[in-house]
Structure formats: C-alpha cells, structure tokens
Amino acid sequence: MTELLTIEKVTVRFDGLVALRDVSLAVEDGTVLGVIGPNGAGKTTLFNVVSGFVRPAHGTIRWRGEELRDHRPDSLARLGISRTLQGLGLFPGMSVLDNVLVGAGPLARCGPLATLLGLRRAARDEAALRDRAMTTLADLGIAGVHAALPGSLPYGIRKRVALARALVAEPRMLLLDEPASGLAADEIAELGERITALAGKCAVVVVEHNIDWVMRVCSRIVVLDFGEVIATGEPSDVQNDQRVIDAYLGVPA
Ligand SMILES: Nc1ncnc2c1ncn2[C@@H]1O[C@H](COP(=O)(O)OP(=O)(O)OP(=O)(O)O)[C@@H](O)[C@H]1O
C-alpha cells in the first residue's frame, strides 16, 4: 500500500518542554489511523507539525515521498491535505455554503489575476466550486442548511459543516481533531460509518479521546504518552499492550 505521510524521528520543543520526542509513524493510503494518548501527550502538536503550524527541532516529514520543509497551513489543500480543528473554526458571519467554499478556496483559479484575465472563466470556476460545495454538503446530508448561519444550527450539524469544509478540496489525507467530541451517541456511530466509507477515497488520521470509538473505526493506532510513541499497531495489539494499559487505558477491572 502507498505510504502517503512518513514522519521520522520528529522532535518538537516549546521552550524547555519537549512536546514530541523522536516520533516516527506512517500513514498509508486508504487507512484510518487513530492517534490516542492522555491530555498533553502531544496529539495536537503532531497535527500542527504536519500542518506546518509548528516546525520540528529535528526529524523529517515526507509527503508522498517529498520532504516537507517550509510548508505552511495555507499550502496544505494544494498538497492534498485537509484538517478539521478541535474547535469548529467556522466563520459566524458567513453562510454554511460560504464556510465550505473557504475550504475550496485554495483550489480556485478565480483569484484577482484570473478575474482580470477572463471574467467569464472566473464566473464558470466559481459556479463549479459552488456546485462542488453543495454536493459535499449533500453527501453529508446537510444541503438543506446551506444558506443558514452556523450559529443558528445544532452543534452536530456545525461539526458536519466543518467536515464538509475539509472534504470539499477532495484531500488525499484528512486530519480530524476530536471529531466525536460533543456529539450524541447516534451521531458518533454515524460519523464512524462515514469515516470508514471515506477511507476508500483518502487516508484519515484521527485524534480522539473516545477510545471505544477509535478501536472500532481505526485500522491502526498510534499511542502517544508524554510526547513519545509507546505503541503502534492494530487496535487489538494496542489494547493488549502493557505499556498502554499502564499509561493510559488503566488496568481492566
Ligand atoms: N504553542 C505551545 N506553546 C507551549 N507549549 C505548548 C504549545 N502547544 C502545546 N504545548 C504543550 O505541549 C504539550 C503537548 O500538547 P498537545 O496539545 O499537543 O497535547 P494533546 O495530546 O493534544 O492534549 P489534549 O488531549 O489535551 O488536547 C503540552 O504539555 C502542552 O502544554
């Protein structure tokens, strides 16, 4: 299977604190990788370093074989990587559709220059992007709220809007930060099915505290503790790993 993302011995320091220490992992195409670990283990930092928000002190990050050195969050969509944030990060003054279009923006050919060069083509591009955003909303069952402001919608629907914004760019890899938090049980189950279905189109890396859900949905799991990888493997391997039980899952009753 194709290795999309390869992280080798990445260390991230914030002043004196080591948030990640010699972390290595790989994300293969078509898989759902779960990243778990106690609070402060370094999970969000891992996403931030992949996204270019923070730079590693050392180590390498390769995307489809090419080393990422100076990548920035705003170049991610062009690389084929999308991300949802722990908070939803939706723009409250913009409609659902416009929020989703923000995710498609980096792909648009209708920037100021394109507009100067050809208004007709720019208008066509914009119409195509709007169609694509509407299709993405429809895929998630929320096309009906495209004109609403996010603040008027239930939390579970807003989370789907945030997912639509990440998916509209048709990424090769999707990074999801706590996608199940704040959702009702039926929504969590539905999200699991959606992510499993997505894995046919793109790789998914998911940081999530809901361990039962992670064990069900993910094909592989990486466990972080104090910035270090303490276990990697299939859910059943990780569940039975003594270091994981000691550090995180607790001794079963
Ligand atoms: N920008 C920053 N500046 C300083 N310290 C930071 C920064 N970001 C994270 N940290 C620290 O790095 C460590 C790892 O934090 P991180 O948020 O990655 O953990 P996490 O596993 O995502 O935690 P949680 O499950 O609570 O979200 C923590 O000790 C945190 O306080």
Structure description:
The protein is an alpha/beta fold. It folds into 2 domains: 1-80 and 171-253, P-loop containing nucleotide triphosphate hydrolases (Rossmann fold, 3-Layer(aba) Sandwich), CATH 3.40.50.300; 92-170, no CATH class. It has 10 helices and 10 strands. Strands 6-7-8-3-9-10 form a 6-stranded mixed sheet, sandwiched between helices. The chain has a 4-stranded antiparallel sheet with strand order 2-1-4-5, with helices on one face. A hairpin with a 2-residue loop joins strand 9 and strand 10. The structure holds adenosine-5'-triphosphate. The site of adenosine-5'-triphosphate has 11 residues, from strand 2 and helix 1.
State the secondary-structure class: alpha/beta
Terminal Cα separation, in Å? 38 Å
Mean pLDDT: 87
Overall geometric form: globular
Instruction: Provide the gyration radius in Å.
Output: 19 Å
CATH topology of the largest domain: Rossmann fold
CATH superfamily of the largest domain: P-loop containing nucleotide triphosphate hydrolases
Bound molecules: adenosine-5'-triphosphate
Whole-number count of domains? 2
Total helical segments: 10
List the uncertain runs: none
Q: How do the strands line up in the largest sheet?
A: 6-7-8-3-9-10
Task: State the CATH architecture of the largest domain.
Answer: 3-Layer(aba) Sandwich
User: What is the CATH class designation of the largest domain?
Assistant: Alpha Beta
Strand content: 15-25%
H-E string: EEEHEEHEHHHHEHEHEEHH
